[in-house]
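User: Need the bound-state model for guanosine-5'-triphosphate:
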Amino acid sequence: MSTDLTASAEGEATRAEVEPRLQSVEIAKTPISDDLTLDRNAIDAIMAKNQTKLVVLIGGSRAGKTSLLAVLFHKFLKGAVESVAFAGSESLPAFARMLAAISVQNRISRASMPRTTPSGDYFGVHLKLAHKNRLTDYIFIDISGEMYRDAGRHASFIPPLKFIRRADFVGLVLDGSKICNPAKRESEFQQLFAVTKRLVDTNTLQPSAEAAIVFTKIDTWDDDSVEPMAAHYSDKLVVSFPWRHIRRIDTAALPRNKEIDDTGLSALLATIIEAPAFCISSKGTRVGVSGLPTSWYARFGTE
Ligand SMILES: Nc1nc2c(ncn2[C@@H]2O[C@H](COP(=O)(O)OP(=O)(O)OP(=O)(O)O)[C@@H](O)[C@H]2O)c(=O)[nH]1
Ligand SMILES: [Mg+2]
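Assistant: Bound-state model below.
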């Protein structure tokens, strides 16, 4: 159903009446609500239908996780990215909500992303992507900042995050704007390190998953001293865990400087696309999915 805002029939708003109201809605400050995220049943249903890769982003509150997903989707709307094309999504309302926040009046670089809801453990969206004549489903999970903080504090917060075991790709997200702040960089890193350690120690995060250390907001790195710090933290994460394969990706999804186009999104996507698909077998071990019956990788919400 479409609404003609110019209609002036009784009871209907005219364009002149509606526009000021639209402008006064603080779209960017409204949290992404629970009902826009895919719940566990919806994720299981997608995974049961087709081979699905699970991508998990782990990082602190306001680190820029949701912005990465929103801007990735925005790039797909303009065309293929690295020969990967958008082929559908069961999360269009969620992406629309995210884009509404960042594209108000086309000021994408001055946008403010709504907070991922604090009441849930995670925010999940779906993308179906076409690559090399193949369609693959992807579930992207953005762990809420609160859940992340709690996971660093105490082991009792880990069980709700058990689904991370199923991840095919894990992005360890570090807020670049904090890395360039001497007062905040060490605690930003230590928190990610503590959460990663707890997840690995509890066998929740499997270092056999493809992983990346993702620095965000690198448009804020205007000082030469930041890069050696980033390299130091990245090296420490690399050597401290038995990763199968891990790389560093520097990103700026929503650079404040309009001259800089979004950075690192294509590299992030390429890494995710190339990550081999795995699943957890009924014995709890990690196995490749090729050739396995579909039910083997439909394991998000259930054990
Ligand atoms: N300078 C700069 N700011 C960015 C960039 N990407 C995101 N931001 C800003 O960082 C803030 C937080 O971004 P989000 O994507 O909401 O972060 P999040 O990690 O999802 O946060 P939670 O949902 O609270 O866990 C927003 O105000 C964004 O506009 C970037 O590349 N550069
Ligand atoms: Mg978020």
